[in-house]
Design a protein that fits this description.
The protein has 246 residues and is an alpha+beta fold. The chain has a single domain, classed as Aminopeptidase (3-Layer(aba) Sandwich). Helix content is 26%, strand content 29%. The chain is built from six helices and nine strands, in the order E-H-E-E-H-E-H-E-H-H-E-H-E-E-E. The chain has helices at 34-46, 83-97, 120-134, 156-160, 172-179, 198-205, and strands spanning 4-8, 52-56, 59-69, 103-111, 139-144, 183-196, 213-215, 224-227, 232-245. Strands 1, 2, 3, 4, 5, 6, 7, 8 and 9 form a nine-stranded mixed sheet that branches. A hairpin with a 4-residue loop joins strand 8 and strand 9. Helix 1 (34-46) packs across helix 2 (83-97). It is globular. It starts with a strand and ends with a strand.
Amino acid sequence: MAKIVISTLAERPEVTPYLGDFWGVWPRFMLNDLIADALLWRVTAAFADQCLIATEDGELVAHARSIAFAFGDDDRTELPAGGWDQVLQWGCEDLDRGRAANVSSALEIMIRPSHMGRGLSYEMLAAMKAAAKAKGHSTLYAPVRPNGKADPAVPMVEYVEQLRADGLPVDPWLRVHVRAGGTIVQVAPRSMVIAGTLDEWREWTGLPFDRTGPVLVPKALAPVLCDVEHDHAVYVEPNVWVRHEL
């Protein structure tokens, strides 16, 4: 088996155009978060030393992104309920204002399906922690998307409490973080917000969206709220804040 090599985008900037090859890993509706559309591209440009790639025989098999931000001051004493969207905004805002960052947050770890189940997620998380520590940061936070949550109707606060017999979370991604020394802190109830017309949601999901009320969409972590009279549906995704001390 060929050796997997993990590098930063600062070391391998020529790989940047290929990160989009992984978009197909996400459910299609997840590609319509306006905060991500507006700001995520800035992370690879401004935080290249915190963005990681894994290659095997020259093929890109995984990548990860994190962002630096300021935390602990008077206006930021709590991890945001806005989770992923909010921490991405904070990091870009701090960059624009020249505000000194003292911690980092993971934004994503994406593994090519052919390489799942080989422990690569642990290696990418370890490399992400090392990159944050190299910047002098004492903590890496992560608004984790527990994608093992198969029933959108189950509240996230209940799902997080579900444990295996060995005491570890039933969710695979939360289990990766806990095994790597992370501590589950709290639920971020509105970590990502995706809104669209009913035609857009039909296109994204193949579902009819013809009745007002909650719609259970495959791979969604919470129900999508459909309003037929007003021709829109809104998905508010909960994530889970995890803290890693470095």
